[in-house]
Amino acid sequence: MTISPDSAENSARPTLRAFLLYFLRLGTLGFGGPIALVGYMQRDLVENRKWVSKQDYFEGLAFSQLCPGPLAAQLAKYLGWVHSGTLGATLTGAAFILPSFLMVLGLAALYVHFGQLAWIQGLFYGIGAAVSAIIVRSAWKLIQKTLGKDYLLWVLFGALAITTVWTQSEVVWLFVLSGFVAMLVKAPPKLQARPVQAGALGPGLLTGLLGPASAGAVVSVFLFFLKAGAFVFGSGLAIVPFLYGGVVGKFHWLTERQFLDAVAVAMITPGPIVITSGFIGYLVAGPLGACAAAVAVFLPPYLLVIFGAPYYRRFAQNRQVKAFVQGVTAAAVGAIAGAAVILTRRAVFDLPTVLIALISLGVLLAFKKVPEPVLILAAGVAGVVLHRSS
Which terminal residue of the chain, N or C, has fewer Cβ atoms less than 10 Å from its own Cβ? Predict the structure, then answer.
């Protein structure tokens, strides 16, 4: 797989090794959830290193938003596919996901053996406020780079932002509708007949929170998370309500407190939030359950990149398709901005969190080279101190 001539003009092609090392680092140090992660990719790969063209990035963002599964991981795999085909998508996805999976695996083992992670409330108290600042900055940069002075794109952006805040969810058919609206306005198809061309298109490994688990439990975990990966659209945050209904409500694998701890662990570790699947899988059926859950939730989006991206890419230069992608991208950025509002509401709710968020945002704007993990760590320490004293 090679970069298209148009894309290559504006980007310097890195080696596959350099590409993988970047995603390994992002998976290890990339805090802030899906909104921040896609912002990091734009900043690092498009703006600073110029390894990826702006066109490839926004086509990938639109493709990822239309597909089920975690947004950031899907975009990483798509960019890997653009670089080196199936091999690139496979290795890039693995490099991006593996670090956070190993961290979650270790935290899950500690959780099972040492209790409820009481310190996590204080950490998340501060981390959530800092993360909200990172998300707001990332969303603003996406808005600036995507919409420009195009009034139609601003209208589509506004509609999706308001809808996301109102419904607190991302509705995939609105992304498709935005694409068609942009296509009909910007590049209305010519209605003339054309000939149709065919073909265009061990016990220790099974020990969870409740003791030894059966092989059937591992299979149940795999099938449940396979469904989650195949049918949940939007950012990784969109999977949380789906998981809650199954893990707590239907199967009663975890209590509500344990489920909230699992989500909190995913929020304080780098990489995609969907990695909470590995934590939940471990609590249910040990390390094998963690592996089964993580593989299952990432498998459907991976297969979509491998088999769907070539067809998407083939027609991406068509005027109608380009207009459609512009509309979907504007809608995606609108949904991301709406999610930023929702997350900020939940993370910033009293004077200490307001101060942490404002200070974090000020640091990000004034010192652009401050590593986000350092900011996250400082906010977490502040959160532990303030939470204990409150």
Answer: C
Are 179 and 327 within 8 A, CB to CB? yes
Average of per-residue pLDDT values in the chain: 79
Per-residue HEC secondary structure of 302-342 comes to HHHHHHHHHHHHHCCCCHHHHHHHHHHHHHHHHHHHHHHHH
Angle at 122 between CA 117 and CA 126, to 5 degrees: 135
Instruction: Classify residue 82: in a domain, yes or no.
Output: yes
The sign of the dihedral angle between the CA atoms of 96, 97, 103, 104 is positive
The answer to whether residues 78 and 309 touch, using CB atoms and an 8 Å cutoff, is yes
Q: 217 in the Ramachandran plot: left (φ > 0), alpha (ψ -120 to 50) or beta?
A: alpha
Instruction: Give the per-residue pLDDT at 339.
Output: 72
Start-end of H helices in the chain: 5-8, 16-29, 33-41, 54-66, 71-114, 120-147, 151-167, 172-186, 215-231, 239-244, 256-268, 276-314, 319-347, 351-366, 372-389
β-pair partners for 208:
211
What local confidence, expressed as pLDDT, does residue 195 receive?
42
- For residues 129, 255, 169, 95, the Cα torsion angle rounded to the nearest 10 degrees is 70
Residue 57 forms part of a structural domain: yes
Distance CA 53, CA 42 (A): 10
Q: How many domains does the chain have?
A: 1
Residue partners of 279: CB distance under 8 A and separation at least 6: 104, 107, 108, 111, 262, 265, 266, 290
As a whole number of angstroms, the distance between CA 224 and CA 214 comes to 16
Instruction: Determine the pLDDT at residue 7.
Output: 45
Tally of CB atoms within 10 A around 252: 9
| 245 in any annotated domain | no
Burial class of residue 259 (count of CB atoms within 10 Å of its CB; 0-12, 13-18, 19+): buried
Length of the chain in terms of residues written: 390
- Band of pLDDT at residue 44, cut at 50, 70 and 90: very high
Q: Is the dihedral of CA 67, 73, 75, 81 positive or negative?
A: negative
Distance CA(209)–CA(110), nearest Å, equals 11
Look up the domain containing 13 and give its range.
5-187+294-389
- C-beta separation of 237 from 35 below 8 A: no
Residue 205 inside a domain? The answer is no
pTM of the model: 0.68
